[in-house]
C-alpha cells in the first residue's frame, strides 16, 4: 500500500494529496459525529461529511501542497533552525489564518448560513486552538519530513483537528 501511494505521489502529487486530504477530512467529520457528538449511524449527516471531503480535496489539499512547496523554495535562511522558525511563523500567520477563514466561510455558504455569523462565533477561538497545536507540529514537519510527505503528515494530525473543526463548525447549526 505504501509503495502504491509513493508511486502515485511521484506521478501525480497534487491529485494524490488532494484525494488523500478529502478522505481524511471526511474521516475527521465521521469521528466528530460518531465519537464526539455520538449521533449514531442512523442520524449521521452525510451532507456534512461530504462538505468536509469537498473542502479537503478541492481547497485544502491543493492549497497545502502548493503552500509547502512555496515555503520550501522561498524561505531559506543561512541557519537551518532560523529557516524552520521562519517557515512556521509564516505558515501560522499567513496560511493558518487564511485557511481557517476560508474553511468557516465556505462551510457556512455550503450550509446556507451566514459566513459573517460563523466567523464571529468560531474564528478567533479556533485560531487560538490552532496556535496551541500546529506550530509544534509544523516545526517537526519542516525539520524532519521530506517535502512530498508534509501534507500527509498534516493530514494524519488533522484527523483530530478536523474532528474539532467539524464539531465547532456544526455548533449552532
> Overall pLDDT, averaged?
92
Q: Any low-confidence stretches, pLDDT <50, length ≥5?
A: none
Helical element count? 6
Biggest sheet details: none
Could you spell the SSE succession in H and E letters? HHHHHH
What is the number of beta strands?
0
Instruction: Based on Cα principal axes, name the global outline.
Output: globular
N-to-C terminal Cα separation, in Å? 38 Å
The fraction of residues assigned to DSSP E strands is under 5%
If you compute it from the alpha carbons, what radius of gyration comes out, rounded to the nearest whole angstrom?
Answer: 16 Å
SS-based structural class? mainly alpha
Helix content: over 70%
Q: How would you portray this structure in words?
A:
The chain has 173 residues and is mostly helical. The longest helix has 32 residues. The mean pLDDT is 92.
Features:
globular; 173 residues; mainly alpha; 6 helices
Amino acid at each position: 500500500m505504501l509503495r502504491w501511494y509513493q508511486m502515485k505521489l511521484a506521478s501525480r502529487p497534487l491529485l494524490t494529496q488532494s484525494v488523500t486530504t478529502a478522505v481524511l477530512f471526511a474521516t475527521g467529520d465521521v469521528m466528530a459525529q460518531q465519537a464526539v457528538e455520538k449521533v449514531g449511524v442512523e442520524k449521521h449527516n452525510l451532507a456534512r461529511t461530504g462538505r468536509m471531503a469537498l473542502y479537503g480535496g478541492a481547497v485544502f489539499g491543493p492549497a497545502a501542497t502548493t503552500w509547502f512547496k512555496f515555503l520550501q523554495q522561498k524561505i531559506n535562511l543561512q541557519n537551518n533552525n532560523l529557516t524552520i522558525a521562519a517557515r512556521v511563523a509564516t505558515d501560522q500567520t499567513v496560511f493558518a489564518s487564511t485557511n481557517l477563514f476560508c474553511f468557516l466561510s465556505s462551510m457556512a455558504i455550503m450550509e446556507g448560513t451566514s459566513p459573517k455569523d460563523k466567523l464571529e462565533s468560531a474564528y478567533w477561538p479556533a485560531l487560538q486552538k490552532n496556535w496551541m497545536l500546529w506550530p509544534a507540529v509544523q516545526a517537526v514537519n519542516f525539520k524532519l519530513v521530506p517535502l512530498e510527505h508534509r501534507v500527509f503528515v498534516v493530514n494524519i494530525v488533522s484527523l483530530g483537528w478536523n474532528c474539532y473543526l467539524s464539531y465547532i463548525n456544526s455548533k449552532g447549526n
